[in-house]
């Protein structure tokens, strides 16, 4: 029983390839990623990036986001108030200590982790 080599399947035989116009170098990608990281790190420890004048200095670059930079927030605020902290729904859901406590307990139940109510 000899196997014929005419129908050999080679790995990556059907993978798409870049056209010459789509080719990009690793250095181009690294540069844009480095610039994005530098932009994010420049926000840490100050509020120069804030557009609404209500933001606080945050310790992590992921936390340095203004309400005016988030499309979902700006869309909802366009009809009601200028700033997210002025929105009644935000105050009720995000700033009420009891709502936050109940939400934390519910989340703990969902994730099946231990939760001590004495922390709140």
TrEMBL record:
Compositionally biased spans, kind Acidic residues: 28-38
Region annotated Disordered, chain positions: 12-40
PANTHER family xrefs: P2X PURINORECEPTOR 7 INTRACELLULAR DOMAIN-CONTAINING PROTEIN, ZGC:195170
Name by which UniProt lists this protein: RanBP2-type domain-containing protein
Organism: Patella caerulea
């Amino acid at each position: 029983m000899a196997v014929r080599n005419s129908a050999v399947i080679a790995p990556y035989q059907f993978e798409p390839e870049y056209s010459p116009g789509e080719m990009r170098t690793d250095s181009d990608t690294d540069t844009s990623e480095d610039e994005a990281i530098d932009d994010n790190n420049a926000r840490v420890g100050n509020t120069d990036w804030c557009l609404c004048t209500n933001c606080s200095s945050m310790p992590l670059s992921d936390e340095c986001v203004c309400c005016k930079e988030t499309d979902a927030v700006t869309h909802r605020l366009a009809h009601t108030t200028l700033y997210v902290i002025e929105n009644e729904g935000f105050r009720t859901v995000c700033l009420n200590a009891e709502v936050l406590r109940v939400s934390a307990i519910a989340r703990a139940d969902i994730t099946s982790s231990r939760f001590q109510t004495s922390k709140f």
